[in-house]
Each structure stands twice: as C-alpha cells, then as structure tokens.
Amino acid sequence: MFDGADTSGFQRLTTDSGFFLIAINNVEPYLDGYKVTFSIGNPFSATYKNLKINVTWGKRLLDALAGKEKDPDAFMNWQHNLHQKELSIPDELLPASWNRVKLVLTPAKSDDLGYISLTLNAGAVILRTPDQ
Prior knowledge:
- By secondary structure, the protein is mostly beta strands.
- The protein has one domain (11-117): Sandwich (Immunoglobulin-like), CATH 2.60.40.1620.
- Strands 1-2-3-6 form a four-stranded antiparallel sheet, with no helix packed on it.
- The protein is built from two helices and seven strands, in the order ββββααβββ.
- The longest helix is centred in the middle third of the chain and has 7 residues, at 74-80.
C-alpha cells in the first residue's frame, strides 16, 4: 500500500511467482486523474511476461474515517468508494532490474491518491536453459 504523495523508498510486493520491489517515482495530473510512474524491481534472474496489474486507489483510510469513529459502516463505505482497475503491461520485467511502468488512474482528485494498492500477476516466467 502506498501514499501517492510519498515518492520515497520502496515496498515489497509478494506474488504467486515471487516478490518484487515497488516504488513510486512520479505522480502528475493527467486528464481527469493522474499518471503514476512506478518502478518495479525484479530481484531475480527470471524475466516476467504477460503482466496484469490490479491497482486500487482512493482516500487515505484515516482521512475517510476522521470524525466517523462511531459509524459502524464507515470502513465499508471507505472500501465501497475505492476505485479499481486491471491493466495489462506489454513490457517484460527484465531480470535484476528496475522496470518503469506508467499507470493512468482516472477518475481521481489529489486526495484520492492517499491509498494506492497493487497486485501483480505474471502470465509467464522465463528462465535461461543451460546449454547441453
């Protein structure tokens, strides 16, 4: 989970085919939302192809719950108001590299980037075959 205002550091993203390192590099207004540039670190010697990224974004949970501590539905309302999108990434994730990926999050206002969550699925994992 990321805060779109924080472009420092990275986080670990665990998937079925390994883990990756994710960092936000840049956030800029784009159409009726934002273009977010991520770096996806592939620490392995494998190349990953046919990637699908599920991204969820919305208001910061603490901001959404502020003043609603006694509302039993506040958390469910926050979840209901999150935006979600599945995107296919045509580029390969190269081995032992930071790979840049740009995602357009629309619709979004600046306070809709307080919570950004990603899941990543690779359709193919390519490993070198040793010469025989």
